[in-house]
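User:
I would dearly like some help making sense of a protein record. Take your time, and here it is.
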Amino acid sequence: MSRKKQENQKITALYCRISLDDGGDNESMSISNQKIMLRDFAEKNGMFQHEYYVDDGYTGRNFADV
């Protein structure tokens, strides 16, 4: 890959979130399933460079506990 092409590569942030307040039993919204769905969406839309950011079980109401 040429240097110019590398400089133009963008990284897409894929954000996964599950909150214990949302009733964490829902398997369809598990972090692993969200990653798969987000990766598929990104790649179908030409976004092949991506990073995952995961918020696993923290609620905004209890941010002081983090």
In short: The chain has a mean pLDDT of 78.
